């Protein structure tokens, strides 16, 4: 949630207020039909007269048009039909159905079909035959068809508040911010007033090579609004924006927009998911260009609708495109989406992308309330193809930022921008600087930061996270905790983190202290990492509970099912060295001394039935990680990997050292895993993890692999959600975890249900492993007895001949935030205190 917090922090107060002031709002909706056949007409242009506020009818001929200002007349325009103008009631909401009459002057170019509506089909459809030709010629028209290519790119990204009303502007909290509300723009999306709050610009040179396949980007200049880093993470926000607004390549099968994969209208399988119509032929161009309109067969699916323009020659190249999404699409918080692509003929006689514009408007409600609009415009110039590019260009990193890129002055930008920029947009840089110096704004941001990020920034030190200050469990009772961490304001090389906790029931103090030194004079969270860290922790831990990005003493995790009385008191001494390389290979050298004491319902009994109060191990480890092409949300004091199609490989070797600093056992543990996301186009995506481990040496059960269990009511992706803590231990195992999200592929086709915008999820987890006799206390003396319940029933097991398996079917996107799974455990049902079925929930923010 941290990157999303950075994205919304500046405007969160606007969303909370949800101010709806529509006294001057004009809204019109209706259906457009052919006057003769009564059939609905898709892609009819509808505009408020003498404005740029407009839309197009959907596949069913329906339209909705809204303006925050009074309007009095509509225009309807469609190729082959007479243009119609209709008066409307100003500043009101109304319905208006229209019938268009064919233009007699164009009757020789229009075929009017009367009688029964003809069912759409691909067979013998000239529009489908045309799109298949476009698909067949994709490779020759892509930039990758050239041996080499180079070009310059200018990118401008602008973000604004939308639907800003006079009532909102007059709020007391904004009385000192009136300078922000000047000269608003109301022409970009549906007549909504826009208030610019953020801008970033970038100028870069790109170099591509086909054989061998290489690419290089040299960032010449970059500039962006910088908010106060105590409240808003500028790096995290920029990374999040870049992820949402990626390059639009229509020649790819799937286009990534707003963190989702959309099927391109010229993807290999596009005719199975889109309807295509030839709507115009532009004969005044050479070669002739055909206008091809397309709509989704199912308007809820992750598909576009709009128009593409294709040359009517042997190349079938795309010369332009304009498309968006249907209002019924299963996409959260997106009010409007518009993509415009312009191509120009190049020196090779082909077409190259000259300009790309992506505009998206977000909001809690579909039309009402304050929203957030983002626009990314990219301009391409100075194309050169099949020229000799020296090998030195591609040496080093694939992306290089020049040392003075962020220091370019206004004169440089005026001379080198490849596109125009308005005076209003340039004002944003100064407006935000003024805003941040206002005391009332600083007070507001402190409160919002604490509520949404969980930390209170005090400059060089910040307190938090607040959701860990209070929790409870059966052993500690009420647990109170207080702590925090230093920030880069204290030092870029030294980082410290600490907390102090106390259990009311066990009357024991717990604490943690770590110190980290950066060896490359960069933040320890910034890629590539290179640091050394020393830490000591005295605290509790549930054996078998492994959490990602969540604190174990998070208040919400205090609520657990079943018998939950096992706990460990631990003393951890750690020393780690981390080194990352530019190719995303990294290694971690570590030393750990671990002393553990069982508590609650957990006891360590040796083979003589004697209690063992303390178990101590010393170990060294080497962890290797390779994540090619990995990207992450880079924040000031965090870094979160972004799940993508590229695999992530992990290999860890750990050696126990008997006799070193009190270590009691010699052992070797080898663990490996592969994580990968598979995109299946319209069928969604699967996150797959394959993992395996082998322990060599004779060790008691606390040092075996204690498989990740979950006794909370939250659905955990990497744990077994119906397995009890410490239910299974192994000295060798392999596992597979598959979590598939269909993105509403089936629900989108069910009447009524599709209006709820729900999404289907399925998962399957299997674990196969066991204990060799040398580590099984039933066959080997000198080992700890496996835990039992108070009534003597066995509590911990080794896996038998059958793998442990569980699966789930779930419904996601409930209220746009909640996923609920029905989980089934398939075997080992005779164990005490286990359930065959369970309901688990997970909060997930996603578009």
UniProtKB/TrEMBL annotation:
It comes from the Bacteria. This is Carboxypeptidase-like protein. GO terms for molecular function: carboxypeptidase activity. Coiled coil: none annotated. InterPro entries: CarboxyPept-like_regulatory, DUF5686. Residues 1-21 form the signal peptide. Keywords: Carboxypeptidase, Hydrolase, Protease, Signal.
